[in-house]
Amino acid sequence: MITAMTKKERIKEAARMFYEFVEKNGFMADDEGFGYWMVAKQGACRADQMFQVNRGNGDFDVCTHLCECEEALGFAKQLEDHMENVKRMMEL
């Protein structure tokens, strides 16, 4: 039951769901170690093909301001919608 989980456990489960969704859609998430992930299509390595997801305190905020890749931008919108649903479900 979700309400029996601590906030830390709910954030950990939301992060697991994040990685699962990213990988299922052919993207990868790299943990930069500064409170955010860099997300890009598998094999993409240019900065304009990536976007950030802030994971601070269960926020999972998507930031696309430097991304110019249409495929990555489309996926960012899907990911943002998915994580909003996850945050509601996990009560974050």
Question: What would your notes on this structure say?
Answer:
The chain has 92 residues and is α+β, with helices and mostly antiparallel strands. It has one domain. The chain is 42% helix and 21% strand. It has 2 helices and 4 strands; from the N terminus they run αββββα. It starts with 6 loop residues before the first helix and ends with a helix. The mean pLDDT is 91.
Give me a quick take on this structure.
By secondary structure, the protein is α+β, with helices and mostly antiparallel strands.
What's the helix and strand layout?
Layout: H1 7-24, E1 27-31, E2 36-41, E3 50-54, E4 61-63, H2 70-90
Antiparallel strand pairs: 1-2, 2-3, 3-4
Helix pairs in contact: 1-2
Classify the oligomer: single chain
> How many domains, as an integer?
1
What is the alpha-carbon Rg in Å? 13 Å
The helix content, as a percent range, equals 40-55%
State the separation between the terminal residues, measured CA to CA. Answer: 15 Å
Biggest beta-sheet profile: 4 strands, antiparallel
Number of strands: 4
Summed up, the helix count is 2
What share of the residues does DSSP label as strand, in percent? 15-25%
Q: Strand order, biggest sheet? A: 1-2-3-4
Extract low-pLDDT stretches.
Answer: none
Output mean pLDDT.
91
Question: Based on helices, strands and strand pairing, what is the structural class?
Answer: alpha+beta
What is the succession of H and E elements? HEEEEH
Shape: elongated
